[in-house]
Every structure is written in C-alpha cells, then in structure tokens.
Design brief:
Layout: H1 13-16, E1 28-36, E2 40-47, E3 53-59
Antiparallel strand pairs: 1-2, 2-3
This protein binds zinc ion.
Residues 20, 22-23, 25, 47, 49-50, 52 line the site of zinc ion.
C-alpha cells in the first residue's frame, strides 16, 4: 500500500495572509495564472464563498542583489 496525501503547495494562501475583502475568509481558487512583466506572476483568484475576485502579483524569481 502506498497511500500518500497530495503534496501541499509550498506557500498556501493562508500563509500569505491573503484575505477576501468581501467576506474575510481565506479560501480561494485560482481562476488562471499567467506570467506578467518584470518576472512576476499574475494570479486571478475567486473566493469560494462570496465569489469576490481578486488579482495578485507574485515575484516568481529571486531578486538580484
Ligand atoms: Zn469571500
């Protein structure tokens, strides 16, 4: 038997402090992800509870010194 739980993402939304501005929950699903300018990642998220959509930008690469 080899029952392993699915791997958790490296940075769950809960640990980023991402909170829905509509209902205050932290449960989102990602509508889509795309690369943006400046080496950033644009993520479109939708709240599972109230349907509020938010857009986040994330730095995908390590910053040069
Ligand atoms: Zn919400």
């Amino acid at each position: 038997m080899n029952l392993q739980p699915p791997k958790a993402p490296a940075q769950p939304d809960e640990q980023r402090g991402l909170v829905c501005p509509g209902c205050g929950c932290q449960h989102f699903w990602v509508v889509y992800t795309r690369a943006s300018w400046g080496g950033r990642i644009l993520r479109r998220r939708e709240c599972r509870h109230c349907g509020r959509r938010i857009t986040t930008f994330e730095q995908s690469t390590e910053r040069p010194r």
